[in-house]
Amino acid sequence: MGRCIKVLAFFLAALLLPGELGAQGLFHGHHDRLVGTPDNPLQVGVGIKIDQITDVNQKAENYGAVVVLRLEWTDPTLAFDREAMGRDFRVFDPPAFVTHASNLDTVIPAFVIHNQQSNRWIHESAAALRYDGHVTFIEKSSLTLQAPHFNFVKFPFDTQEFHFEVASVFPSEFVRFYSLDAFSGLGDMLGEEEWILGNERLLASTTIGLSGRESDQVELVFTGTRHLTYYVIRIFLPMLVLITVGWALFFLDEYQKRIEIAGGNLLVFVAFNWAISADLPKLGYLTFLDFVLQCMFLMTGAIIVFNVALRRMKTSGRVGSAKMLDNYAIKWIYPLGYAAIVGYAIFAYLLDPGFMSP
């Protein structure tokens, strides 16, 4: 037990040191006393309310947020005589509250944001102590969080999962977390235009904490889907026009003109591919849109080769054979080929989630 206390005290000191680390930790100050016991662990309620989503960087697989954290617990050691004090509540800034708790031979629970990637810049924070020892801690801060659960197989029809994970520094046998659902969720004005965010829920679980032992964790999980109007207008509609233009080429009698126009379409598909890849990380798998674009690129290349072959047949005197192949391409090969590509893409990438999973 003595060794455990020293380890926990070390982690608390690392979190609570003043200076630059003060922008990261829950409180400033020093602790060297253990809170809670295995027989009676401290029960701490955790609420997570995201007011704003400042950025979703899918290439870096992270997102920025402005969040309000709320922690509540009751420690009888912190109780005071309200009649002598003349009020029911005392309000502290975090450093003063740490000093007050330390003077009373007690400590407060500490936490870390498990998937935090940047500095946590605290806008406002305060601790309210009720006469019976009930503490309410509120903190509003902004930070960047990792989003490792992103999966782009269905892009742009994908649904992504976002997490905000608050983990206890103390092992679960000393401090237990439970969720404050009434004080959690997403704000009404998130300020995010690209995504439709919702389906938020608060989950309580355990994880391996800073002490190397099992610690309690509460996480806010929510999902995001894309505004598809943008992709329909900017990507799918131009793609449909290019496919239609490619099909209309077969009605030209001059094969040289067909080759020139198909070559121009090929360059457009290359530009599409670069524009889309700029928004995504360098994935080790194809997305739905990648698959469709690559197949369109190959089809357009095949059209050029096909028209070159028809032109050679015409110049060699096999005009009848060239017209027959051209007729098959117009009526069957081109439209059925694209129908097969789109049908396979829908089945493999959208309808069967595990078929093309990375």
Automatic annotation (TrEMBL):
<feature type="signal peptide">
    <location>
        <begin position="1"/>
        <end position="23"/>
    </location>
</feature>
<feature type="transmembrane region" description="Helical">
    <location>
        <begin position="288"/>
        <end position="310"/>
    </location>
</feature>
<feature type="transmembrane region" description="Helical">
    <location>
        <begin position="259"/>
        <end position="276"/>
    </location>
</feature>
<dbReference type="GO" id="GO:0016020">
    <property type="term" value="C:membrane"/>
</dbReference>
<feature type="domain" description="Neurotransmitter-gated ion-channel ligand-binding">
    <location>
        <begin position="34"/>
        <end position="169"/>
    </location>
</feature>
<protein>
    <recommendedName>
        <fullName>Neurotransmitter-gated ion-channel ligand-binding domain-containing protein</fullName>
    </recommendedName>
</protein>
<dbReference type="InterPro" id="IPR036734">
    <property type="entry name" value="Neur_chan_lig-bd_sf"/>
</dbReference>
<feature type="transmembrane region" description="Helical">
    <location>
        <begin position="331"/>
        <end position="351"/>
    </location>
</feature>
<dbReference type="GO" id="GO:0004888">
    <property type="term" value="F:transmembrane signaling receptor activity"/>
</dbReference>
<keyword id="KW-0732">Signal</keyword>
<dbReference type="InterPro" id="IPR036719">
    <property type="entry name" value="Neuro-gated_channel_TM_sf"/>
</dbReference>
<dbReference type="InterPro" id="IPR006202">
    <property type="entry name" value="Neur_chan_lig-bd"/>
</dbReference>
<dbReference type="GO" id="GO:0005230">
    <property type="term" value="F:extracellular ligand-gated monoatomic ion channel activity"/>
</dbReference>
<keyword id="KW-0812">Transmembrane</keyword>
<dbReference type="InterPro" id="IPR006201">
    <property type="entry name" value="Neur_channel"/>
</dbReference>
<dbReference type="InterPro" id="IPR038050">
    <property type="entry name" value="Neuro_actylchol_rec"/>
</dbReference>
<feature type="transmembrane region" description="Helical">
    <location>
        <begin position="231"/>
        <end position="252"/>
    </location>
</feature>
<dbReference type="Pfam" id="PF02931">
    <property type="entry name" value="Neur_chan_LBD"/>
</dbReference>
<keyword id="KW-1133">Transmembrane helix</keyword>
<keyword id="KW-0472">Membrane</keyword>
